[in-house]
Amino acid sequence: MPETRSLAQAIRERSWKSHGASEGAGFMARLLKGHATRDDYTALVVQHFYMYDALEAAAAQLSGHPEFEAVNDARLRRMPAIEADLAHLMGEGWRTRISPVASVTRYAARIREVAAQGWAGGVIAHHYTRYLGDLSGGQHIKRVMQRHFDLGDDGVRFYIFDIDDIDAFKNGYRAELDRMPWDDAEFERVVDETLAAYQFNTDVFVDLEASRPTPALA
């Protein structure tokens, strides 16, 4: 067991290296430094479509479960915003022109597997990883994309939440995690699943970097 019984603290401590590796992946580093193209950003939004399609289907499947309902706030739902962003970035017919990278296919499959098991803690692990990331570093990504690609709200609606005080919301979410009635074994399972979620996210950035077009030789 970790020294602290706080799930949020344990996740922060044990996922820190994974979090750093994720941010340091070439694709994400280029995006955050403003060195990426609009097509690079659009490719990321496309992958979000497949991630959140699985995650929000899992949320619907676990709806009503007392543990999951403690963190299942409707204001977090992202699919309508993702669809609006893709329509703005890609135009009509965008659904026929998108596909997931291999790591996103695996990522979505894992989320669906956890949901099919009815494992609330496992779904919460992915829920926490994605949504609190969107409410934290995602807000910086939004500002960089708006500045670099001259976007208003259209194109970055994914990062815009109907939440007045984001910091208070995140603190409340973490407090709910700490009140979960999990024994030591379940606590460890959830932390491990969260670390797996971080790895999936790193793998997505690696795949996106690998899929970038090779510059033509002069």
Keywords, separated by commas or semicolons:
218 residues, mainly alpha, 0% strand, globular
Structure description:
The protein is an all-alpha fold and about 220 residues long. It contains ten helices and no strands. The longest helix is centred in the last third of the chain and has 27 residues, at about 185-210. The mean pLDDT is about 90. Keywords: Heme, Iron, Metal-binding. This is Biliverdin-producing heme oxygenase. GO terms for molecular function: heme binding; heme oxygenase (decyclizing) activity; metal ion binding. It holds the Pfam family Heme_oxygenase.
How is the secondary structure organized here?
Layout: H1 7-24, H2 26-32, H3 38-61, H4 66-69, H5 79-90, H6 102-116, H7 120-135, H8 137-149, H9 166-178, H10 184-210
Helix pairs in contact: 1-10, 3-5, 3-6, 6-10, 7-10
Protein name: Biliverdin-producing heme oxygenase
Pfam families: Heme_oxygenase (PF01126)
Binding site for heme b: 12, 19, 128, 174
